[in-house]
Design a protein that fits this description.
78 residues; mainly alpha; two-stranded parallel ribbon; 2 strands
């Protein structure tokens, strides 16, 4: 997730490819940081959902390992 001048990005892309494998040009300066923030918001929301799901399972008296195993094999691979 990179932002900034496209010409400079193109010049340093070979270096980025040495230190990472998924490099994406996102636009003007700051765009990479904004994209990273979107990613962090998504991860935080997902983590909250996971915790709430496991808390619900715990309070319902379910075996957490079994719940995780079954949910992980579902269509959504949660």
């Amino acid at each position: 997730m990179v932002g900034g001048d496209r010409d400079i990005y193109d010049r340093v892309l070979p270096i980025f490819k040495i230190i990472g494998r998924d490099i994406a040009y996102m636009g003007e300066s700051g765009s990479g940081q904004h994209t990273k923030m979107c990613n962090q918001i998504l991860i935080a929301g997902t983590m909250i959902g996971v915790v709430e799901s496991l808390l619900y399972a715990y309070r319902a008296g379910l075996d957490l390992d079994s719940v995780i195993d079954v949910i992980g094999k579902g269509v959504a691979s949660s």
